[in-house]
Structures are given as C-alpha cells and as structure tokens.
Amino acid sequence: MKSHIHIPPLNGIRITDPLFGHYADMVAEKLIPYQWEILNDRVPGTEKSYCVANFRIAAGELDDVRQGAIFCDTDAYKWLETLAYCLEAGKAQEYEAVADEFIELIGRAQQPDGYLNTYFSVVCPDKKWTNLSEGHELYGAGHLIEAAAAYYKATGKDALLNIARRFADLICTVFGDGEGQHRGYPGHQEIELALVKLGRITGERRYIEKARYFLDIRGGEPNYILEEIKGRNGELIFPEFKNYDPKYSQSHMPPALQTTAEGHAVRAMYMYSAMADAAKEYNDSAMKAACRTLWKNITEKRMYITGGIGSSGHLERFTADYDLPNDRMYCESCASVGLMMFGQRMAELTGEAHYYDAVERALCNTVLAGIDAEGDRYFYVNPLEVWPDNCLSNTSMEHVKPVRQPWFACACCPPNIARTLASVGQYIYAQDEKSVYINQFISSVIDTRIQSAGVKLSIESDLLGGKVDISILSDRAQPFTLRVRIPEYFRTPQFVLEGRSISPVIENGYAVLAVSRAGEQHLRITGTVQPAWIAANTHVRADAGKVALQYGPYVYCLEQTDNGSELPNIFVRSEADIRIDAPTSELPGQLPALKFDGKRISSGVENALYGSPSFQASDVHLTAVPYGLWCNREPGEMLVWLHSLMSL
Amino acid sequence: MKSHIHIPPLNGIRITDPLFGHYADMVAEKLIPYQWEILNDRVPGTEKSYCVANFRIAAGELDDVRQGAIFCDTDAYKWLETLAYCLEAGKAQEYEAVADEFIELIGRAQQPDGYLNTYFSVVCPDKKWTNLSEGHELYGAGHLIEAAAAYYKATGKDALLNIARRFADLICTVFGDGEGQHRGYPGHQEIELALVKLGRITGERRYIEKARYFLDIRGGEPNYILEEIKGRNGELIFPEFKNYDPKYSQSHMPPALQTTAEGHAVRAMYMYSAMADAAKEYNDSAMKAACRTLWKNITEKRMYITGGIGSSGHLERFTADYDLPNDRMYCESCASVGLMMFGQRMAELTGEAHYYDAVERALCNTVLAGIDAEGDRYFYVNPLEVWPDNCLSNTSMEHVKPVRQPWFACACCPPNIARTLASVGQYIYAQDEKSVYINQFISSVIDTRIQSAGVKLSIESDLLGGKVDISILSDRAQPFTLRVRIPEYFRTPQFVLEGRSISPVIENGYAVLAVSRAGEQHLRITGTVQPAWIAANTHVRADAGKVALQYGPYVYCLEQTDNGSELPNIFVRSEADIRIDAPTSELPGQLPALKFDGKRISSGVENALYGSPSFQASDVHLTAVPYGLWCNREPGEMLVWLHSLMSL
Fold first, then answer.
1. Rounded mean pLDDT of A63-71?
2. Edge-to-edge order in the sheet of strand A491-497
3. Which residue among A387, A584, A616, B26 sits deepest, i.e. has the most Cβ atoms within 10 Å of its Cβ?
4. What are residue B627's phi and psi, to 5 degrees?
5. What angle, rounded to 10 degrees, do the helices at A159-174 and A137-155 form?
6. pLDDT value of residue B2
7. What strands, in cross-sheet order, belong to the sheet with B467-474?
8. pLDDT per residue over B431-472, tens digit each?
9. Residue B190 has pLDDT above 50, yes or no
C-alpha cells in the first residue's frame, strides 16, 4: 500500500528550540498585535494598509474611498491564518475574540452571491472576473480559504469556513467549461492549492476538481491572459504588464509540460505546490515528473545559497540558469515561503527526505532574514550583498532596502513570513499511516496518534554541536516507524538507542527505526557538523572565485558592525580555519558567531580612480553571523560571498 | 591678456588616422545614407523613427497621426548637424541637396510665431510650454540651433539658421522675468549650450544672456518642475517620473552650488557644458569653480574606466561615489558624448590639458563602442560585462542589449555618436590668439591661420608605438606657440625638433614649443606607451581584486569569440606579460590585439549548485581586443575587469 504522508495538527506540537521557539512566541506575542494595528492603520509613520477599513467600506459600514493594494484583503487573511496557527498552539488567545469579530465583518462584506473582494465590489463591481491577469480575485479567494481552513482547524469555528465555502462555490459556478461558464484562470496562482485544502477539509472532491481544472486549462492556446488584455484594448492596472510575457505567470505552456522555473517566483511556487497536490490527489505521474523536473531546475540551477529565488529585481522573476547576482536580485521573502510549501508537498508526494534540504535552506536563511527579532520590521527583498549607499542612491536598486521596513504598500511578505514561523511545526513533522517523520532537527515536542497508539516525541537538538536527543514515548506496544531525515551537513551519523549503538537503514534519505514497545525510549543521534567554506557551481558567474560560510543549515554573513565597511575588499583563503565563537548576545537563538582570519585588500590606487595595481593585504580578524539574523543590530553593509585567495 | 581658446573650423582639418579616419569616412559614406533612410522609415524590420513624416504632418503636407518619441525631431537635427560636419570636411556632398530640401520642410513645419516642435504643434497645440519637465521643447530647440550653427558654418547657407533664430527669438520672448514672461526652465537641458553657440555665431549677446538666465533660475525654490507637475495634478507623459526627484534634472539646487554629479547623466553633461560656457562668457569664477568640482567628482569618483557614466540602469543616472557595477549600469553613449563636450569646454575655459584625459577615454572607448564599424548598428547602453543569456532573460537587465541595434524607439544615441565622430577634429585641435593646441595624437592635418600666418600642421601618430611625428609649416616668420598635450600614458616623452633634442617646458599639461620661422619643421615626440594592467581605486567595490587592460587610451576586453564563454572564471596575474599581437583583421583601425596567459578557474563544484570548494585552474591563452571595437564579430560574452590572482 502506498503511504499517504500528511502534516499532523499543530495543536500537538510545541516548539522548544531557542531560535524557532523565539520566533513562534514572538509571532504570537508581538507580531499578531503589531500587524493587527497595522491592518487597522493605527501605526503612525508607516505605509498605510487600509485593509480593515476596506472591509468596512465593502460592508457598507464606512463611507470612504477604498485604498491600498488591489490584493490587500489577503494581508488580513494571512494574519488570520497566522493567528489560527498561534491559537492551535495555545497562544495569542486574547486575539480570538478580535478575530471572531473581524470575521463577522468579513461576512458582512461578502456579497449575497458569495463574492468577496473589497477592490472589485467597492471600486468597480461591474468588472468582476474581467481582469484575472491583474485583478487577484482568485488569489484573494485562495488566501481566504487557507485562513478559513486554518481557523476552523484551530478553533472548530466554521464562520470563516462558511464564508470561504460560499465564495468557493461561486467560483466553482463561475469557472468551468460548461454553458455560460468562464474559461479563465488566475494571473496569480494561489486558488489552486487553496481549493485542494478546502476539498480535503470538507471532504468535497469538487473543490479539488476545480483546482485541477485551473491547472489543466492554464497555458492553452490562445493564451487566456493575452486575450484578456487584448480584450481590454491593452488597458492595464499595472503599467509594468505592458508587453505581457506569459512566462511571467507560468501560462506560456501547460504546467505539466514546463521544465524550467520561469516568471514571477511566488506565482511559480504557488502553482508548483498545487501541481504537487494534484499529482498526489490524482496519482498523476506526468504531473509528478513535471514537479520533479521543476524542483531540480530550481534547486540545482536557480536558487541562492540562502534558499532565495527570483534573480530579477524587476518583475520579481526567475531569469536564466546560474544567473544569481548577489546585490540586485529579488529573492522575495514570499518566494522562499513558497519554496518551502512546494518542497514540503514534494516530500509528501514522494516520501523523499531530500526535498527538505531546500526547505530548510529557505527557512533558516531567507525566511528568517525577512523579519527582525522583534517581529515589526520586514525585508521584502533579500540580497546577499548590501551596500546601503548604493541602494539608496541607485534607482535600479530601489527595490533593495538596506534596513527592514515597518510595512509595505504591497505587503504580502510580512504576514506570509508570520504564518510560516507560526506553523513551523508542519515543516518539522509529518506522518503517514504507520510512521512519524522528523524532517528538521528543531527542538520540539509532538503529541500525536499513530493508528491506535498515542505517541509522543521530544526532540532536543544541539544541531550545530552534532547531537540530537529524541525521546520516543508510545502508550502501547503497537509497531510504528520513526523516520528521521539526516541532513547532508550532518556527517557520519551515529545512532544510539537506549545506550546501544544501532545501524538503521537509510530509506529515501530517512534513517528508519522500527518502534514496537510501549514506554519511553531514548535515541541519540550524533554526527559531525562543522562550519565549512562553500563554493558555488563553476557556472555561477557571480560567485566565481568566491566562498561562503555555512554551518549546518545556516549561511553566515559579514556585517559592517563587526567587520567595518567595504566588505568586498575582504578576501579569505578557502582553507582558513573557522573558529566557533560565543553567540552574539543581541541576536536571538544562541547560534554561535564564527570567527576567521582574512585579508583586507587594497588595490594600491588611492588618489585616482584608476591606476597601476599594487595590491596589498592587511590581516583582518573577521566575525560572521547567521544571514537569517542580519540587520538586527547597527545597520550597514552585509556580504555572504567573499572573494577567495586561491592558492594556485 | 587672457587667452581665448576656441575650436578651429573643421574645413581645415582632415583625419588621416586609420581608426578615426575610418569612422569619419564611414559616417559620411554609410551612416548619413543609412540614418536618412531610417528617419524616413524606409528601413524594414527596425524600430520606426517617424521623424521626417512628423515634419510633413506638422507642415500640413501629410494627413497622419504624429508618432515616435516626443523628442524625435532632434534625431533629424542631429543628422543635419552630422551632415554639416561631413560637408565642412568636404564629404557627403550628394546629401546637401537632400538636406536643403528637408530644411525647407522644417521651415514649412515652423509656425508663424517661430514655434517649432512636431509633437506639440500637431498633438496638443494648446499645451505648448506647459510641460517643460517632460516636453523637451527647449531641448529640441537646442538641437535645432546646434544643427543650424553647424550647417551655416559648413555651407554658408542661412535657411536653417534663420529658422533656428526665429525659434530662439520666440523663446527669448516667452521666457524671462518680465511681465507676461514664463519663469520656467527645461526638464532636459540643451537649450543653454545651444543659445551660447547661437550668440557666438550671430554675435548677439542676448542669446547668451538667455542661456545664462536658464542656468540662473534653475534649482530655485519652490522647485519649478515639481510645481509644474503639481499644477497638472501629477499627470505625466512618462510614468517613471512619478515621485519626481529634482536631482534627476539637476534642479535640486542652483547649478553653481552643485558639487556632485547627480541625476540623469546626459542632462547633467549638457548642463555642465553650458555652465562652462557661461563661466567663460561671464568670466564667472564661482561658476568655473563649480564646473571644476563637478568634473572632479565625475572623473575621480563616478566614471567607468571606459569613460562611461551613469551607473543606474533605471533613469539613466548617477548614483553614489564609487558605485560602478559592471553589468547592469547605463553608461549611455550620449552621456559619454556629453562628457566629451564638457571636458572640451573645461579645457577651453582653463587652458589645462588634463581635461582631455577623460575626453579621450570617453571617445576611444564608450563612444566608439556605441557604434559598429559599418555605422548601422548602435549601443545605447555600454556595460563592461555582458552575458547575453542573462540580459535576454532578466527583466532587470532589459536595458542592456548584447548586440547593437539597428535603431531605437528613443534614438538619441545613434545621431549623437555620428555628429561626434564626424567632428572628431574639434577634439584634436584648438587655438587661441597665438597658439595651436594639439589635444589628441590622432593622425590628421590642419590648415589654419594664426593672426596673419597660415599654419599647417600634420600629425602622423603611431600612438601605441610611442612615436608621433608632427610637421609644422608656417607661411611666414610670425611667432606662435604649439602646445602639445602629453597624455599620462605617454611616459618619458622625448622631443626632437629638426633632428635636435629639445626640452620644452610643460605648462598646464602641454609641452610648449615656440615657433617663429617660416617654412617646414619636423617635430618627433617619442615616449613609452605600453599595454598595462590597471586597477580601480580600492573604494570601487565592483572591481575589488580585479584588473583591466589598457593600452594607451584604449581599454581592452575579452570577447567570447576569442576566449570561450563564462569569462568571469578567467583569472590573471596583474604581473602577467602582455604581448602585442597583430591587429584583428575584422576590426577597423589596425589596433593590435593583446595576448596574455591566465587561468580558467573551476570551483570543483560541478554536479550540485553549492558544495565544498576545490578550486582548480587550467592554463588559458587569452586574446583581448579594444573595448571600443567589441561586438563587431560573433556576438557573445564580453568582459573588461578580470579577477586577479594576487600573489599575497
């Protein structure tokens, strides 16, 4: 029998890890209140959200002009989803009443036929569904559904779920191949994976079928999006969509035929996630193969070492294989969230642990970098090299911010990071009928059931120290399998169960342990985890002759506050010793700093702009901190890839 | 008495240099016909110009929609200016009748009050002078005047000059501080330097005074351009001007107070040129000091080794000191033309030779790179590193074209390069009351008068061989001074006059030779000119640890056709021998190729995207060609700055 891997409910999971526990608590305690104030436009000096006001306008309870991004309803939906995860974990309960009241408002903003979108219903009710390429109505519906599913699972309350279902039912009626139905698909994918979630939570297959429908008609000829724009005589909400390239929205060919990651990275990730869902739901081997190919293209040719994706600063999109410039790219926080979603689904689909390599890379680096330790400042764009002076003065670099921002006019990222960090447990654990999967060595506890047995696992991870203790407690002698992903950087793993060395088989990247007796057992996994210099593939021109520092899943970086300015003048030998130092006290998570010696190079050209080289080097003692935590201290330059002094 | 340096007429100058002679002939023989066909929309498969058609529409002789860039009249004006220089040099005479007929058309397109602009007079005659920030009316007038002055000097015909004067007179009436006058200034400078030219050629000071007026009111508070945009309720022709930054048009403060080169690089250069003109006309030491400061900021902190300027790909503008990224910048061909104009005027103003260093750098590298050897393909943007795959796929890099284009929707560059190459003599020679200045060692002949003496100079330059022969022929025994700029790269110069070694004084960078006898004398200047590795100032982060190859004024580059792809993996020792090789036969000018040995580095990471470094090097034999001539063969990658293998 084929196993069906699924994610256990978060209410059984508690994060105890000093780093991820910090973020999970912070989201519940600080971010939920902060973002709620933002959504209500009560934080002075930031970009205004207009989000809650828009629902009041749509409900007819406020007489004002609908403002904010066309898709900003979704900021509230993602906030609700985040809150749901907090509630499910037993946190932020004081916001449940706030949420319930807001959900009532959302209900009042919904139109009698189920339609729900504050932009179209207030600004141009006659234009519903006429601008799928830019309008984000289906995208908004998707986030509503995701929030509703999460809120229902967390609270058992179905008010939001019923709102979402009414909208989903309308969508199922409006879209399709039948008489009078609209054969269109969204310009920004999201509805597809959401409809799969809705189908699963309600048990109604028709939602999953509509998700499949949207995937199936995408990329057909003539191109729906181009036809739609043509039908409006080229009239656009977003002028940057002039000369629209269907690759931008992955509508250049049917999804199952796509072999390279193209276009807007977030759109791509949400679509690939839905493709993986569809491959699983329909046992569709062609779709599964396409997912594998796309994943391979991303992770082997188009992904930064930080798990960032999208190397074009304009249109936030993928470019060419190995085109990974370090300072001007996009690497949107949401895109890395999307990469985690896709990877998680690929692991669900295949049972293969390696998909979590990139999930972990994205989580521990780009996703963490997208938010500060206090939860109230965010990066949208996540470069690997920052020089504040040139970001601020260079109109080509305007998308790159040298410090995190309190909010954005287009604010997709802050609540997307929030919902990810609030639900990080779903990236740690998975289950199938007879197994529990441990996908990340993040200290935590899970309390779950496997068939009739109550099973409690407790991970105490000293990951960077190469030691992970797992306590396994089963309330009855019913066999199950523990599958533990052994990450690539966790070398020469040794397993000791109840004091006895064991050699579990490794299957699909998981160490497989059969558990059959009741009571508690203790598994210790030790391995060699050392900070290491990493090079990029020779084809990555931007990293030619450079090295980066990685310790376990964490990419490290130099910050100006530790190492002075003009960081690109720092050169290091790729054999240089790396010393593990005490954690930087201002940073959360107690991750060690890393120290090493290098050279600061001067060209010898000091009084002119160009001249005869006379390279000189002075010794420098350098301190690197985790990239995911950068810019939590004094703002300044930051650099991941360092020039290598090669001994050749 | 203060000397008044001026540029001698081109009709006395003949270019015999194999490189610049090629371009001067090519412009007359091929480019003039090609661009005329383009301006008449008779070249299939290219961007349409609409330029001549627009004049016909404005003249009421064609009933059609006015199309093309708002400022595309200037493409014709620059074509006429280019033709004038060709005619002045005795070339392209078969186009004089074509030009005369076209000038008549321009005259018919002029309105009774002298107004002349096909966009406003056809499309929105009620909006004249209401949108100086975007409308380019004064910019267009400036190019009309420059063309008219050149055409008058070349042919003695005043038809175009009269058209230009009528428009200039209207401008003098419309703009000013008087009752009913408009206190505005152009969003794109050009009228100022043109009015100075017009004042000089007509002897009417009021034109120069109006140029001064436009400079004087610029940058005052409240900002005219911001007020104008506000007055239109923010309505814009160019959406990119949303959130207009007055620095963009150098209107953030009065010109004489500006100390750093800011904003759109072409606007800046045209304004600084006018500032240098004004400093000379008014003997204004504050303006002169501002010009010196701005020049210093550009050439010491904001200029590429190729003489390219404008390091932001978006808005074509300056950014911050030492921010000189090599692949994504603008380096517009027009901006380097403007740098030549500014430098030439600074040398006129100060009598100092060093201003020609950057003029020569811009001419021999970026300006030449902007055009192919045949004159029918052009670069607008001139990067120092090109990887075609990423330019084509990366929406952030869309401004960078990996091959020259047959025309542009915004086609300022092709005719701007053309007029510069057709008038290159004006960058070689200058004169004052008692001197002739030789500013470039470009083989050529000049026939001129100094006071009552007829003087003929003939330069035979083997510049890269370090040998320049100058024959000096004076028709009478009247003393004059020959001032010869000795470029920085021309080391240990030796002077031999009529077989006798002499040691001329060096004054303001010029070797000064008193000539007093009639008849011919022969001066030989020899020096050491060697290809050399060059480094950038330590503050230039983009060039950290890199070297470029320069030979005399020519920057060299690697092209894929000679050296394979993935050029950034090439490393070279900055002590590597450089071998002077035969010229590449497909390239004009007989400049030698340069050969050297280097290493092609691989990171050792081949089957994954990231991994443990194991840098390996293989020996490679490399061929560099002049940057100004790149992309005249098989298209592909190109690279100027090479990683250096430092021996430290």
1. 97
2. A13-15, A444-450, A453-462, A467-474, A519-528, A491-497, A500-502
3. A387
4. -55, -40
5. 150
6. 56
7. B13-15, B444-450, B453-462, B467-474, B519-528, B491-497, B500-502
8. 999 999 999 999 999 999 999 999 999 999 999 999 999 999
9. yes
Task: Report CA B291 to chain centroid distance, whole Å.
Answer: 17
Q: Which two tokens stand for residue B496?
A: 């031999």
Segments in B327-483 forming alpha helices (H): 333-350, 355-361, 368-369, 388-393, 413-422, 425-428
Model's pTM, two decimal places? 0.96
A134 is catalytic: no
Q: Tell me the shortest Cα–Cα distance from A376 to chain B, in angstroms.
A: 26
CB pairs under 8 A between A and B: 225
pLDDT at B334: 98
Question: What pLDDT band is residue B242 in, cutting at 50, 70 and 90?
Answer: confident
| Cβ <8 Å between B328 and A610 | no
Contact B539, A566 (CB under 8 A): yes
* Neighboring chain B residues of A574 at a CB cutoff of 8 Å: 613, 615
Of the candidates A580, A556, A551, the one whose C-alpha atom is nearest the C-alpha of residue A641 is A556
Query: Which residues does chain B have within 8 Å of residue A396's beta carbon, measured at their own beta carbons?
Result: 312-314, 328-329, 396
Q: Which of A318, A541, A401 is nearest to B326 (CA)?
A: A541
A265-281 helix and A285-301 helix, angle to the nearest 10 degrees: 150
Closest CA–CA distance from residue B351 to any residue of chain A (Å): 21
Tokens representing residue A346 in the block: 């690929």
CA gap A284, A296 in Å, rounded: 18
CB-based burial label for B257 (10 Å; 0-12, 13-18, 19+): exposed
Set of chain A residues whose Cβ sits within 8 Å of the Cβ of B541: 387, 566, 568-569
Is residue A646 predicted with pLDDT exceeding 90?
A: no
User: Can B124 be counted among the known catalytic residues?
Assistant: no
Nearest to A328 among B328, B566, B612 (CB): B328
* Neighbour count for residue A12 (Cβ, 10 Å): 18
Asked if pLDDT for residue A1 goes beyond 50, the answer is: no
Measured at the CA of A114, the angle between CA A112 and CA A117, to 5 degrees, comes to 105
Closest CA–CA distance from residue A604 to any residue of chain B (Å): 7
Residue numbers in B near A558 (CB within 8 A): none
| SS3 state at B606 | coil
d(CA B75, CA B491): 41
Answer yes or no: do A613 and B320 touch at CB < 8 A. no
Average pLDDT over residues B362-386: 97
Encode pLDDT of A97-115 as tens digits: 999 999 999 999 999 999 9
Name the residue with tokens 């001197």.
B435
